[in-house]
Amino acid sequence: MSNLKVGTYKYATTEIKGYSNSQIAKNETNDCFVRAVASATEVNYDTAHGYVKEVFGREDKKGTEFTNVVMMKLEEDGMQIGNKNVKVRVLSTNEITNKYKLHGEVIKRKKTVKSFIKDYAKGTYIIGVAGHAFTVKDGVLVDNVGEEFRPTRKVQSAFKIDAPKQSSNQLTLF
């Protein structure tokens, strides 16, 4: 993804491993958070689906609730998804707001998706906007078909994801 221009758009369905072959994905709706977890952590759809169901209490065909509360716990404990240990950092309110001066008074407003991508052009983030979640990876928005880039949506929450490449149990001598 690093050769793409910041602010470009990719479909989650093409970025998520195993998505096109997943029977679970074919029967799902309201799974934007599952797709965001899969694309941010680079695990396949079925693994992310099972993880979100178990850890976040998501019911099939229903959205994921209380993501902020669970992510705060995962910030302390880390995520064990598939065979990866993933670090999570919940961005503070100050990190997802912009400051403006209006008539001599400093005002804070939630960042738009566009300003978030501009300010956080490097790294992987799961972003929550009103009723929806998606991934931003090195300035590239990864989202569902039909959710094409809408730059003025307000960022409600953001989680930095540090996912190492898939670990291998194979030992090396050198």
Overall description:
It is a single chain. The protein has about 170 residues and is α+β, with helices and mostly antiparallel strands. It has one domain. Helices cover about 30% and strands about 25% of the residues. The protein contains 6 helices and 9 strands, in the order E-H-H-H-H-H-E-E-E-E-H-E-E-E-E. The protein has a 7-stranded mixed sheet with strand order 1-8-7-6-9-3-2. Strand 2 and strand 3 form a beta hairpin. Helix 3 crosses helix 4. The chain is globular. The model has no long low-confidence stretch (mean pLDDT about 90).
Features of the shown structure:
single chain, 9 strands, 7-stranded mixed sheet, 174 residues, alpha+beta
Which SSEs are present, and which pair or pack?
Elements: E1 9-11, H1 12-15, H2 23-26, H3 32-41, H4 45-56, H5 67-77, E2 79-81, E3 84-90, E4 97-102, E5 105-110, H6 113-119, E6 124-129, E7 132-137, E8 140-143, E9 157-162
Parallel strand pairs: 1-8
Antiparallel strand pairs: 2-3, 3-9, 4-5, 6-7, 6-9, 7-8
Give a short summary of the structure:
The chain has helices spanning 12-15, 23-26, 32-41, 45-56, 67-77, 113-119; strands spanning 9-11, 79-81, 84-90, 97-102, 105-110, 124-129, 132-137, 140-143, 157-162. It is built from 6 helices and 9 strands, in the order βαααααββββαββββ.
Main beta sheet? 7 strands, mixed
Unreliable stretches: none
Q: What value does the average pLDDT take?
A: 88
End-to-end C-alpha gap: 30 Å
| Helix segment tally | 6
- Tell me the radius of gyration: 17 Å
What is the succession of H and E elements?
EHHHHHEEEEHEEEE
